[in-house]
């Protein structure tokens, strides 16, 4: 079995679309930059997103019962940095950056994202270091057609 640092080095060569996964619960909003998200099914429409379980602030995703995946464009690197914590110059509410709205569930939807998937949480599974959120897509929003923001080799790329 590979050691975690070797595994992370190998996974850094695996390209992933950069997304901000969001939720809201009892007046609190949470958003995190991730690359571990994908489609599970198109009938019904189901997606999954993976979040680190060691961060206690991520428990809000379980409590809220909903989440949104917001796929970022290449010109949204700053937002990716804010929601990943890579840009510590933004104090307080991360949602003060960007333009946010809601669709069906109340999860924050990024205006101008390439695509946003508003989801009802249908299952959550903890697997080792991460929680896997499975969501039934209840609403969609499309942004402008632009190059996608990708993360690979520990840096942002574009397609």
UniProtKB/TrEMBL annotation:
One Pfam family of this chain: Flavin_Reduct
Keywords: Oxidoreductase
InterPro entries in the cross-refs: Flavin_Rdtase-like_dom (IPR002563), NADH-dep_flavin_reductase (IPR050268), Split_barrel_FMN-bd (IPR012349)
Keyword Oxidoreductase: yes
Gene3D superfamilies the UniProt entry points to: Electron Transport, Fmn-binding Protein, Chain A (2.30.110.10)
Keyword Oxidoreductase attributed: yes
GO MF annotation list: FMN binding; riboflavin reductase (NADPH) activity
Domain (Flavin reductase like) ranges: 11-158
Protein name: Cob(II)yrinic acid a,c-diamide reductase
Organism: Mycoplana dimorpha
Lineage, highest ranks first: Bacteria, Pseudomonadati, Pseudomonadota, Alphaproteobacteria, Hyphomicrobiales
């Amino acid at each position: 079995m590979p050691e975690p640092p070797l595994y992370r080095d190998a996974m850094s060569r695996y390209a992933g679309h950069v997304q901000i996964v969001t939720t809201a619960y009892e007046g609190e909003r949470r958003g995190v930059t991730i690359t571990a998200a994908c489609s599970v099914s198109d009938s019904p429409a189901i997606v999954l997103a993976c979040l680190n379980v060691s961060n206690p602030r991520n428990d809000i995703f379980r409590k809220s019962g909903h989440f949104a995946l917001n796929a970022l464009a290449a010109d949204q690197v700053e937002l990716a940095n804010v929601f990943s914590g890579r840009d510590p110059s933004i104090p307080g509410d991360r949602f003060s950056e960007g333009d946010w709205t809601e669709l069906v569930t109340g999860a924050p939807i990024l205006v101008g994202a390439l695509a946003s998937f508003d989801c009802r949480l249908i299952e959550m599974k903890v697997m080792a270091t991460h929680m896997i959120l499975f969501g039934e897509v209840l609403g969609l929003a499309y942004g402008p057609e632009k190059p996608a923001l990708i993360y690979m080799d520990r840096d942002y790329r574009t397609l």
